Amino acid sequence: MAGWALLPLRAFLGITFCFAGLQKLANPAFFEASNPISIQAQLHGALRRSPVHALLSPLVHVAVPLGVLIALAELAIGAGTLLGLWARVAAVGGAVLSFFLFLTVSFHSSPYYTGADIVFLFAWLPLVLTGSGGVLSLDAYLAERTRRAAGAEPSAVVPIPFAVVRRVCGAFDAGRCTMRHGAPCEPAPCPFLAARPPRPPRLAERELDRSTFTTKGVAAAAAGLAALVTGGAAAAAGRLAGGSSTAPSTPGLSPRRTGSPSPTTPTSRPPGGGSGPPAGAKPPGTALGPATAVPVGGAASFNDPATGDPSLVVQPQSGTFLAFDAVCPHAGCTVEWDPAAKFFVCPCHGSEFNGRTGAVETGPAATGLAPIAIAEGPDGQLYAK
Q: Which of 11, 102, 136, 214 makes a 20 to 30 Å CA pair with 304?
């Protein structure tokens, strides 16, 4: 019954982890360092907020292999959980991965239950304890198949009502047990139920265990090969669908590719417009790149000269530039600009921020994005303090 009761949870976790792994492999942006949803951006966010940031520093240099490893691990865990193959091992792997993501991504989620990783961690624990429960499970099927091939008796435990035991028991007589000298027939002292069937020799049990282990290992290898082929196909399809074009690079500023309007030709700001200094005066701060890299209604990314954080500059109307630290205050992910809705959105947990003020409009983030002073100089460059 435990296996049937946990089947919905097992299906959810298996499908979710398979989808998560395939999604990472199929999305080229996950491996592009300049993209706000990339593994590199998430690692940099974790370095600022994770309690184990010191352990994560070396991983920044191997971000792409780490991303591939995480995606393949999610795919293997999901497949093992769905198939019921090495189910306990898959559940332990899922719990460990969820705990790792909790420490690196959602440790500072407030309230704590708004972070999904801690929920996934506890969702895996019943499967760590029970495995697949023998329900719709390759583990159970392969174990029984091995026992049959070896000529051993089936190992399944079959629960039956005690009324059935009474009907088939030759010692039952009008509610009394003749084997117990006429004592009342009850389940607890029943001689038949108390008798244990003879166990096969220990050597035979070990041989069965070795055969089962080998059979499950072969099945796991076949499932792993199928998962690798599926993951490779997903990665190839994602790259074909996404193409190989990259956004044009400019000094400091990188136009976003999230559906922004096409870049417009340079426009002159009306006298007194925007927030820049008087005409002819060079603004203080660090030059980021040409203002034309930021399309009207769109956004471009840069690193804040003061903190090094990933940041975004938007041009809500011609000649007006606004900049914000792009690190989501909820869990350290890098937010994106939604040109249709005119607001910033966190791709990790869905927080939304006002496109003009950076104020939080939809949680779970509790505070808004930090503004960055920015101005356009007479040379057409954007400057950030």
A: 102
Q: Which residue has the tokens 């040379």?
A: 379
Full-model pTM: 0.63
Of 124, 143, 125, residue with least CA distance to 134: 143
Pick the CATH number of 254-384 from 2.70.70.10, 2.102.10.10, 1.25.40.10, 2.10.109.10: 2.102.10.10
**Token representation of residue 178:** 């003749």
Residues in Cβ contact with 364 at an 8 Å cutoff, skipping those fewer than 6 apart: 109, 110, 114, 115, 330, 349, 350, 351
Starting at the edge strand found earlier in the chain, the sheet holding 374-376 runs 286-290, 381-384, 374-376
Residues of the chain with CATH 2.102.10.10: 254-384
Residue with token string 């392969």: 142
Contact 248, 327 (CB under 8 A): no
DSSP lists the bridge partners of residue 320 as 317
Opening angle at CA 227, ends 224 and 232, nearest 5: 125
Residue 272, helix vs strand vs coil: coil
* Phi (first) and psi of residue 333, to 5 degrees: -70, 165
* Cα 48 from Cα 34, distance rounded (Å): 18
Closest CA to 45 of 365, 378, 371: 365
pLDDT at 88: 94
Rounded-to-integer distance, Cα 374 and Cα 288, Å: 10
CB within 8 Å of 9: residues ≥ 6 apart: 123, 126, 127
Q: Which of 39-48, 131-140, 349-358 has the lowest mean pLDDT?
A: 39-48
Cα–Cα distance, 275 to 269 (Å, whole number): 11
pLDDT reported for residue 338: 87
User: Is the confidence at residue 146, as pLDDT, over 90?
Assistant: no
Residues 230-246 have pLDDT tens digits of 888 888 887 777 643 33
